[in-house]
């Protein structure tokens, strides 16, 4: 076997990109092949001399010749025949032509002659002080019916004296002939990949917003203060979620603070749900789903089936024929119906390129059937393929052909799940190439599983940024799912985590938060003479607050992809001067300190809203504000510990004041879902127990917080907590 005699170098970066007219670098397509060939380091790269000059057989026993048909371009191509082993092929020496420490891009057109299908590898043979190394540059399936372009890159890092350096082509079985044409080896230019990605992000992930502020009579208001805050990303930034979310408060706090999508790591897999035949149990997954729904987290389904033998439930592995078919069918019906309307995606049959449990036993038609049946049961769910080694290694052409075959068999595939389990270092240019190749299928791509195992946390951070910035900037990518985050339960161990065992952020975690901050829009300014305030923001949900003198208004809106210029109208209304306590008989806020220690790592204000009016009030119309000083830039995390109306109906967020006030530069805003119901006339909300902390769990200083009072250990009317109805102040005194 080829692999048996190779030492694969970590210095190599693997790339494979089918020829689809996609340029590696934006703006370079116009340069054409002639420009690339002008920098080509090979002799006789297109065999246009009609001779084999510059090339030789790798073993020395091969027969090399030029032919005039078929050709990829020009008048000639090379034919390699007389191959007595799979590693026999055509080669050219590059010794003395490369510069240590530089990356080289390689491409070639390949076609088989006397076999319908096979695999071709581009390999670098390098002999130096470390010995003889065979470095895989690219690999792809090829046929005799069409030319396939292989593209690869490698970093040249020799050790000591180099005594041999050859580029060669190998791979098909002995006796299989193949053609080679237009071989190119060029030194990669220095490229600011980050600047190019940022330019794509600016165009893809943002749109323009025009806020028009008017008074109650519809006249534009100039000079009004406008504060815009993005409250939720429109783009899915998610993670695998384990059952730890049900038992570990720090895990659940981190998850709901930093991810807006989830996928259950193991809890909706067949081996978790049906450990013995007929004993189906979704209780853990259901509780996780309740957590996700309570915190507005969207969930992908993973997975209906898993094609790899070892991941079948134990009782399934011995089944055959109709028994297996019935068990397989029963599983689809059960799990898809159970999570219908909850899981918005399904990974229908996981890792079909790396397993064939059902296909071997039930025939090839079972694969498209699984997709057809899942779509029949839940037409609204988006159905995905999901596999690995397709962007972390040169498997994108294999994946592409695999998906095309499934589509041709009638599988209703809605999206491409790309697992990105990386090690060593990530080359963003290589990742983009592979995504470009898969994008030619015109299906949405999700980075369905991301992690990078790297002991050096600085490199781990660079890897995370390389993947996230490249994927976020790619027009075909519609979501990124991290596959775990905490060292305490990461499937690949602490070296892949972004959060350490003690819940401190390592360099990768800090980089992740920095990227989320970079891709979140917070802006403020004043309206123009015609009452307008314009900005360009990332897609997502926003709150805008507008004030001028006694006039005030708040509004929420969503900026969605393709919005063009989104117009948001805001009407200012007279708030009647400084808000104070409302007259007796209306709503009031009661407060008590759930934690009287002003210098620990949490603060726990508890609230009760009392309705002394003679009419019921929907809780969804009300918002509470608790004012505090943040004493630093670390983000704060809100938790509802218990509430009579149900914590799933209670939401909290932290908002910075545009201008800091005495003992307050931010506030905690608590709101309610419609499902929280109404405050009955003469009734109250009942106790609402909240708890908040810094994301890194460092201590807080509550002694200078406007709304904090350690003496209030029983519920007391408290004017330093304000209450709003439909955005208008109705109780309390703002700082």
From TrEMBL:
Residues 222-518 form the GH10 domain. Keywords: Carbohydrate metabolism, Glycosidase, Hydrolase, Polysaccharide degradation, Repeat. PROSITE patterns: CBM3, GH10_2. One of its GO terms (biological process) is polysaccharide catabolic process. It catalyses: Endohydrolysis of (1->4)-beta-D-xylosidic linkages in xylans. Residues 583-735 form the CBM3 domain. Its EC number is 3.2.1.8. The keyword Ion transport does not apply. InterPro entries: CBM2/CBM3_carb-bd_dom_sf, CBM3, CBM3_sf, CenC_carb-bd, Galactose-bd-like_sf, GH, GH10, GH10_dom. It comes from the Bacteria. SMART domains: CBM_3 (SM01067), Glyco_10 (SM00633). Pfam families: CBM_3 (PF00942), CBM_4_9 (PF02018), Glyco_hydro_10 (PF00331). One of its GO terms (molecular function) is endo-1,4-beta-xylanase activity. Belongs to the glycosyl hydrolase 10 (cellulase F) family. This is Beta-xylanase. It comes from Paenibacillus woosongensis.
